[in-house]
Amino acid sequence: MGRCFKTKKVIFGNINNEGIIGIWNSKDYRDFRSKFIRRRSQGLTVNYNIDLMPPSQCITCYRLYGI
């Protein structure tokens, strides 16, 4: 749309400090993944459910909209 939107960088952890398993199992990352699982299993319909909204970190990502 010809505009720039600045967003915060998404960070779930530091692999040097926590390790990949610790980051993968963190509450924030589990919540992030579960939104995609729910969206995939229920699909997108005209009667869009607010619970199926993408994670807030993804709202401004062009990939979400297939661009």
Polypeptide structure, described:
The structure is a single chain. The protein is mostly helical and 67 residues long. Helix content is 39%, strand content 0%. It contains two helices and no strands. The protein is flat, with a radius of gyration of 14 Å.
Strand fraction band? under 5%
Compressed to H and E, one letter per element, the order equals HH
Q: What's the pLDDT, averaged over the residues?
A: 77
- Overall geometric form: flat
Radius of gyration, whole Å: 14 Å
Please count the helical segments.
2
Largest sheet: none
Number of strands: 0
Share of helix among residues?
25-40%
Coarse structural class: mainly alpha
Runs in which pLDDT lies below 50 for 5 or more consecutive residues are none
Instruction: Note the gap between the termini.
Output: 12 Å
Brief descriptors of the model:
2 helices; mainly alpha; 67 residues
Compact description:
The chain is mostly helical.
Q: How does the SSE layout of this entry go?
A:
Layout: H1 15-24, H2 27-42
